[in-house]
Design brief:
The chain is built from six helices and 30 strands. The strands form six sheets. The chain has an eight-stranded mixed sheet. The protein is mainly beta and 410 residues long. Helix content is 9%, strand content 45%.
Amino acid sequence: MAMQIHSKLIIFILLLFPMASNGLHRRSLQDVVPLVFNIPFTYHDGFIIADVTLSKVFPLRFIIDTGSEHTLLLKREYTDILRLPSSRKVTLLGADLKTEISAKVYPKLPIQLGGGVMQQQDIIVTDEYILPLEEMLGVRIDGILGASFFQDMSLEIDYRRKTLTISPASLSPKSTYKWKSIPLRVYKNKPFIMADIPGIFQNGIQKNLLLDTGASLSLVIQYNKGMGDSITSGMVKSFWGKGLGGEIEGFGTITDIKVSEDYNFLNVFTCLQELDSTQWLFSEKDGLIGNLLLQQFGRICFDFKHKKFYYQTQKNTLKDIKLLRSDVIIYAFGTGLRQYYVHSVSTQSKAWKAGIRPGDIILRIGNIPANWFNLSVLMKKINHFTSNKLKIKVNQSGVVLDLHIPRSYQ
């Protein structure tokens, strides 16, 4: 049964390329997790969100993101309340791999994940609020728990039971009777595998792919601008989701992916993401595998210490993943995140031709007030309606307009 997923793709690019982040605090061997902890999580639109406690005081909600090297606190008011001194300033590269972003490092702050494992970590806080995750997702998000948190551990994710299992690396390897494994390359604390992607580009089929639990999508393949012109000829570039620094644009296609000698995924939806020469130079990967594909295993495990990726093959559970492009990207704002505005709109779309513009505040969908919907439902209503046209009322620069978007057959 096809799973229709609107574009809530999240690729943690912002902190993958720190320019001055060497020397962040790492745990000593004495800090290794002594016990096994089972921690529940919420799975929201393809994102793993778990409770954490900061400095034994603040109960917060963090995205579990193996695609991020470091841990990021989105709201600096918590460090301001605690009057914590920062150790130094760092400069990060933004999502475009060009923009420099200033931030501060707060050393050795206690972080407890889900009432279980606790450890001290350096936390990065940007000087300005530039990552509006709550607005993009429509739910409370206070930060990102990066891969460095798990570097001496085994991180198991059970997508079916929505449970994280954290254990010492000494308990690995997993039983070969229940689990299969493939080599894991760990670079800047982040997990990578080599996988075969046939039938897209002629410059080799083996790709270095990031296993990114902070990405709500199936598969992204990056290519240097100009290399894929013949492949993407005739395709329409569209929004397939959002990254922490902006929208993700690309060309949608279908491909197979071989993750091991005895395991293939067939007909996987893939976003072909174009990079310019500068971005290509800084990119450390050929693409990524996100949660929508990882969850097809049912259970996975990252053994960072022994550099193994474990997975369980499930019979009769694999689903056809179908992503639909989004011509209109909506952000939430206001009390309870129940007001909405247009953040981006494709200039090639019927929504643009109908008069929808960035900055429009959405008032009504049909005859129903916009605040009756949550963000996920609203995105589907606007981008994937099934009637011949959609009536939408917006406030456009102080002028209330009734617009009609004709249906796009996707």
